[in-house]
Amino acid sequence: ARLSNMAAPVDLELKKAFAELQTKVLDTQQKAKLADLQIEQLNRTKKHANLTDGEIAALPEEARMYEGVGRMFILQPKVIIHNQLLEKQKIAEEKIKELEQRKSYLERSVKDAEDNIREMLMARRGQ
Protein backbone atom coordinates (compact mmCIF):
# COMPACT_ATOMS: atom_id res chain seq x y z
CA ALA A 1 0.00 0.00 0.00
CA ARG A 2 2.84 2.34 0.84
CA LEU A 3 4.49 1.79 -2.56
CA SER A 4 1.40 2.82 -4.54
CA ASN A 5 1.14 6.02 -2.47
CA MET A 6 4.69 6.88 -3.46
CA ALA A 7 4.04 6.27 -7.17
CA ALA A 8 0.91 8.45 -7.42
CA PRO A 9 2.56 11.88 -6.77
CA VAL A 10 5.38 11.07 -9.18
CA ASP A 11 2.83 10.06 -11.86
CA LEU A 12 0.96 13.32 -11.29
CA GLU A 13 4.23 15.21 -11.54
CA LEU A 14 5.09 13.41 -14.81
CA LYS A 15 1.60 13.96 -16.18
CA LYS A 16 1.87 17.67 -15.42
CA ALA A 17 5.35 17.86 -17.00
CA PHE A 18 4.12 16.08 -20.15
CA ALA A 19 1.12 18.43 -20.40
CA GLU A 20 3.41 21.45 -20.05
CA LEU A 21 5.78 20.02 -22.66
CA GLN A 22 2.93 19.42 -25.09
CA THR A 23 1.71 22.99 -24.64
CA LYS A 24 5.24 24.31 -25.05
CA VAL A 25 5.86 22.24 -28.20
CA LEU A 26 2.62 23.42 -29.82
CA ASP A 27 3.34 27.03 -28.87
CA THR A 28 6.90 26.78 -30.19
CA GLN A 29 5.78 25.19 -33.47
CA GLN A 30 3.30 28.02 -33.96
CA LYS A 31 5.91 30.69 -33.21
CA ALA A 32 8.47 28.95 -35.46
CA LYS A 33 5.97 28.87 -38.35
CA LEU A 34 5.26 32.56 -37.84
CA ALA A 35 9.00 33.32 -37.79
CA ASP A 36 9.46 31.32 -41.01
CA LEU A 37 6.70 33.31 -42.72
CA GLN A 38 8.22 36.59 -41.55
CA ILE A 39 11.69 35.50 -42.73
CA GLU A 40 10.24 34.55 -46.12
CA GLN A 41 8.54 37.96 -46.42
CA LEU A 42 11.72 39.79 -45.40
CA ASN A 43 13.74 37.80 -47.96
CA ARG A 44 11.27 38.88 -50.65
CA THR A 45 11.54 42.51 -49.52
CA LYS A 46 15.34 42.27 -49.56
CA LYS A 47 15.39 40.68 -53.02
CA HIS A 48 12.94 43.27 -54.38
CA ALA A 49 15.07 46.15 -53.06
CA ASN A 50 18.21 44.51 -54.47
CA LEU A 51 16.68 44.03 -57.93
CA THR A 52 15.31 47.58 -57.96
CA ASP A 53 18.70 48.94 -56.97
CA GLY A 54 20.32 46.91 -59.78
CA GLU A 55 17.89 48.38 -62.29
CA ILE A 56 18.40 52.00 -61.24
CA ALA A 57 22.20 51.57 -61.17
CA ALA A 58 22.12 51.31 -64.97
CA LEU A 59 20.32 54.66 -65.29
CA PRO A 60 22.24 57.93 -65.72
CA GLU A 61 22.79 60.09 -62.62
CA GLU A 62 20.53 62.86 -63.92
CA ALA A 63 17.59 60.49 -64.55
CA ARG A 64 14.39 61.73 -62.92
CA MET A 65 13.35 59.30 -60.17
CA TYR A 66 10.30 59.37 -58.02
CA GLU A 67 9.73 57.85 -54.61
CA GLY A 68 6.24 56.60 -53.83
CA VAL A 69 4.95 58.20 -50.63
CA GLY A 70 1.40 57.21 -49.80
CA ARG A 71 -0.66 58.18 -52.84
CA MET A 72 1.87 60.58 -54.31
CA PHE A 73 5.32 60.55 -55.83
CA ILE A 74 8.19 62.81 -54.83
CA LEU A 75 11.07 63.65 -57.15
CA GLN A 76 14.29 62.36 -55.53
CA PRO A 77 17.93 62.27 -56.65
CA LYS A 78 19.24 58.83 -57.67
CA VAL A 79 21.64 58.75 -54.69
CA ILE A 80 18.80 59.10 -52.15
CA ILE A 81 16.76 56.32 -53.79
CA HIS A 82 19.88 54.11 -53.89
CA ASN A 83 20.61 54.74 -50.19
CA GLN A 84 16.99 54.01 -49.22
CA LEU A 85 17.11 50.68 -51.07
CA LEU A 86 20.39 49.74 -49.35
CA GLU A 87 18.89 50.69 -45.97
CA LYS A 88 15.80 48.59 -46.69
CA GLN A 89 18.02 45.57 -47.44
CA LYS A 90 20.09 46.13 -44.29
CA ILE A 91 17.02 46.39 -42.05
CA ALA A 92 15.53 43.23 -43.59
CA GLU A 93 18.82 41.39 -43.02
CA GLU A 94 18.93 42.45 -39.35
CA LYS A 95 15.33 41.39 -38.76
CA ILE A 96 16.00 38.01 -40.41
CA LYS A 97 18.97 37.42 -38.07
CA GLU A 98 16.86 38.41 -35.07
CA LEU A 99 14.04 36.03 -36.09
CA GLU A 100 16.46 33.15 -36.68
CA GLN A 101 18.00 33.69 -33.23
CA ARG A 102 14.54 33.74 -31.63
CA LYS A 103 13.63 30.55 -33.50
CA SER A 104 16.76 28.71 -32.35
CA TYR A 105 16.11 29.88 -28.77
CA LEU A 106 12.58 28.44 -28.92
CA GLU A 107 13.89 25.14 -30.28
CA ARG A 108 16.50 24.98 -27.49
CA SER A 109 13.90 25.65 -24.80
CA VAL A 110 11.74 22.76 -26.09
CA LYS A 111 14.78 20.49 -26.15
CA ASP A 112 15.58 21.48 -22.55
CA ALA A 113 12.02 20.66 -21.48
CA GLU A 114 12.26 17.27 -23.22
CA ASP A 115 15.57 16.58 -21.47
CA ASN A 116 14.02 17.46 -18.09
CA ILE A 117 11.24 14.94 -18.66
CA ARG A 118 13.79 12.30 -19.71
CA GLU A 119 15.67 12.94 -16.49
CA MET A 120 12.44 12.60 -14.49
CA LEU A 121 11.75 9.27 -16.20
CA MET A 122 15.30 8.03 -15.55
CA ALA A 123 15.09 9.08 -11.90
CA ARG A 124 11.74 7.29 -11.67
CA ARG A 125 13.23 4.08 -13.09
CA GLY A 126 16.10 4.38 -10.65
CA GLN A 127 13.76 4.33 -7.62
Strand sequence of the main sheet, in spatial order? 1-2
Topology as H/E string? HEEH
Mean pLDDT: 88
Helix percent reads over 70%
In whole angstroms, the N-to-C terminal distance is 16 Å
Number of helical elements: 2
Could you please describe the fold and organization of this structure?
The protein is mainly alpha-helical and 127 residues long. 83% of the residues lie in helices and 8% in strands. It is built from two helices and two strands; from the N terminus they run αββα. The chain has helices at 2-57, 78-126, and strands spanning 65-69, 72-76. A two-stranded antiparallel sheet has the order 1-2. α1 (2-57) packs antiparallel against α2 (78-126). It is rod-shaped and about 80 Å long.
State the gist of this model.
By secondary structure, the chain is mainly alpha-helical. It has helices spanning 2-57, 78-126; strands spanning 65-69, 72-76.
